[in-house]
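Proteins fold reproducibly. Next comes an illustrative record:
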Amino acid sequence: MSGIKHFRLIFSNVIGDIKEMGIDAAEIIDVLESGQGFDGSSIEGFVRLEESDLMAFPSLGSFRVLPASVSGINQPVGIFFCNIRTTDGRPFPGDPRQCLKRALKKARRLGYTFNVGPEIEFFIFKDKDSPFPLDRQGYFDASCEGPGKILGEIVDVLTQIGIRGECAHHEVAPSQFEIDVKYRDVLTMADQVMLIRWVTKRVAEKYGLYATFLPKPIFGENGSGMHTHMSLFKGDRNAFFSPTGNYNLSRIAQYFIGGLMRFVQEFCLVTNQTVNSYKRIVPGYEAPCYISVGSRNRSSLIRVPGYRQGKEESTRIELRNPDPACNPYLAFAVMLSAGLEGINQKMRPDKPIEENIFEMSPGNRRRNHIKILPGSLKEAIEFAENSHFLKQALGPHIFTALLNNKRTEWEDYRTHVSEWEIEHLMERY
């Protein structure tokens, strides 16, 4: 921290917005030891007015230095992600980061660590009021002009702050890009997802452009997902690998998949939390809407990437429904909790499906016992509010706060009169 004059304490509200406090260098040592107080009643999903005082305690292992190019003050800024506690020192049950740590504690009791690697997609537009493509390029096209010219700078800044990307490229839709992040422990990864979104938006702003992680900003084009690769380890051994298992997956991996398939309808409210999320999860745009598992089949909800001999540690599964508008702490927490519940209850997944599910007849899907994800935020709320699993995974505080927030969002959306209604119905009626 030598030479750093300004610091920021960062944490998340219940829906995944970054919140921050600035701290001078003269105060940082005291804050590291004693925490920083703040008014929790002003944070979405935290506390009521009469119980507002909370404390932010920096996590020392999360320290990074934002370069001057994106710090906003033309100087390097030191940042810490924080764990939120009550004034008597207890972990605050409404803190999303603490929610993920609770799930990790359950995994550790079983001897597991949880590693994830998300593929984060996003669009770059002229501004937030003009969601129109700025290029006409597609998947893996060279993109040196328009919004594509800033992708390299985004990756460079992320590298400077210690976030290792495996691959960055143009995606299928015009003006759409993807950053794949190096596999690592889930808590660090959740912090990294928060920073990737923050850095991407800041770099775009430098060029007078607007980056968005909205799942479906353009009608008729692919939406943005956050496919998440995951595996459990016991020490240095990948607990998902078996040389004799189907797809080289162990029984533990099979049970983990079984848990994801059993509870995904109930946790969709977390992994796909906006009304816009459900405009991405429709047939025909590469996003899964049917609950199935496969290997080569990219219409599956859960995909098992091919195993390479000698690379047992890379054995993993890929959950394809999450989108980048989620709160990563809560999303990773419910994924892990569902998988662990699958292991505890020895939930076997349904048989693999390798044919294109989008092209199946409804009767064929019924014969294969293929269920469907919620088709709207309203349906996701209905699955969630009746879910004992989700209440346990999130804790009662976050469970209630999230449901209240999403019910309000649905009601606002339900009563809004859209341009489509004016264009298609006004003259008719």
Summary: The mean pLDDT is 89. The chain is about 35% helix and 20% strand. The first strand starts at residue 6 and ends at 12.
